[in-house]
């Protein structure tokens, strides 16, 4: 199977840039599926934009999809809007296409990751991550780091159970948050917000064939055991890349036509 991969397209922020507001082009006729690993558009925007895409679009939400809304209310609406479209929304869900098993969820973090201790990491994220100001919980309170950790536990339980079910084909995991610190570039390793971007799921990643994620606005491609880990984010529009100031988006390594075989 040939899979086109992208994340963090942030169409919702591209109001003054028509090229970035437009949906990603189909890379070529040989591509079987497009995987979008979160932070594609605010709320239901990604489903509306990719509804009639020429191949199936396997999609997980990022953190930005939930900005300005209540998470538990938005998910049912996303599922409803996706019915009858090209978009296959995965949130603790499984999808099998052509003998390839896709397992997907946002997969928030547990805040156990480096470089801070758990309580310090949570408090820092509470005060510095916009997630905890712009996402609401069902009681109209803020979506707190403790809520993210609880969501991560539920997602991890799903992934552990499903990934260990016998399956004759390939297994592709799609999350927004990263499964390993190896996705964090060296110059960011000591950033106190690292625990809000990655968990240590290396023990699980090694049981999949491919793990696609987003959230970190720098590209990566490495292996955890037999599993290939891919991140191909575009990043924020208007935030110029120092290595290429002419770019209209953040990540100079973003490949709009990145295709991998599994």
Short recap of the structure:
It comes from Burkholderia pseudomallei (strain K96243). The chain is built from seven helices and 13 strands. The chain is an alpha/beta fold and 262 residues long.
Question: Mind sketching the topology for me?
Answer:
Elements: E1 2-6, H1 18-21, E2 33-37, H2 45-50, E3 57-60, E4 69-70, H3 71-82, E5 87-89, E6 93-97, E7 100-105, H4 118-128, H5 131-134, E8 135-136, H6 145-163, E9 170-175, H7 202-205, E10 210-213, E11 220-224, E12 227-231, E13 259-261
Parallel strand pairs: 1-2, 2-3, 3-5, 4-8, 7-9, 9-10, 10-12
Antiparallel strand pairs: 1-13, 6-7, 11-12
Number of domains: 1
Count the strands? 13
What separation lies between the terminal Cα atoms? Answer: 5 Å
SS content category: alpha/beta
Features:
alpha/beta; 7 helices
Notes on the structure:
- The protein has 262 residues and is of the alpha/beta class.
- The protein has one domain: 4-Layer Sandwich (Purple Acid Phosphatase, chain A, domain 2).
- The chain has seven helices and 13 strands.
- It has helices spanning 18-21, 45-50, 71-82, 118-128, 131-134, 145-163, 202-205, and strands at 2-6, 33-37, 57-60, 69-70, 87-89, 93-97, 100-105, 135-136, 170-175, 210-213, 220-224, 227-231, 259-261.
- The strands form three sheets. The protein has a six-stranded mixed β-sheet with strand order 6-7-9-10-12-11, covered by helices on one side. A five-stranded mixed β-sheet has the order 5-3-2-1-13.
- It is globular, with a radius of gyration of 17 Å.
- The model has no long low-confidence stretch (mean pLDDT 92).
- GO terms for molecular function: hydrolase activity.
- InterPro entries: Calcineurin-like_PHP, Metallo-depent_PP-like.
- It holds the Pfam family Metallophos.
- This is Phosphoesterase.
- Residues 1-217 form the Calcineurin-like phosphoesterase domain.
């Amino acid at each position: 199977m040939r899979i086109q991969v992208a994340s963090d397209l942030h169409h919702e922020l591209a109001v003054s840039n028509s090229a970035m507001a437009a949906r990603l082009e189909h890379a070529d006729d040989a591509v079987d599926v497009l995987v979008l690993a979160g932070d594609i558009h605010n709320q239901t925007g990604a489903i509306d934009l990719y509804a009639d895409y020429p191949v199936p679009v396997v999609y997980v939400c990022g953190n930005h999809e939930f900005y300005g809304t209540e998470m538990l209310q938005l998910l049912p609406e996303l599922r409803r809007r996706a019915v009858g479209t090209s978009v296959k929304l995965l949130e603790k869900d499984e999808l099998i296409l052509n003998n390839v098993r896709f397992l997907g969820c946002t997969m928030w973090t547990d805040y156990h990751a480096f470089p801070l201790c758990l309580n310090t990491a949570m408090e820092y994220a509470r005060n510095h991550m916009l997630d905890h100001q712009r996402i609401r919980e069902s009681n109209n309170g803020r979506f707190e780091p403790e809520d993210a950790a609880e969501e991560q536990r539920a997602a991890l339980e799903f992934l552990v159970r499903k990934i260990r079910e016998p399956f004759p084909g390939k297994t592709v995991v799609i999350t927004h948050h990263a499964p390993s610190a190896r996705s964090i570039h060296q110059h960011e390793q000591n950033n106190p917000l690292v625990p809000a971007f990655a968990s240590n799921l290396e023990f699980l990643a090694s049981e999949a064939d491919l793990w696609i994620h987003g959230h970190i606005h720098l590209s990566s491609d490495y292996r955890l055991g037999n599993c290939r880990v891919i991140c191909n984010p575009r990043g924020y529009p208007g935030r110029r890349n120092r290595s290429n100031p002419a770019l209209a988006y953040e990540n100079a390594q973003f490949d709009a036509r990145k295709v991998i075989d599994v």
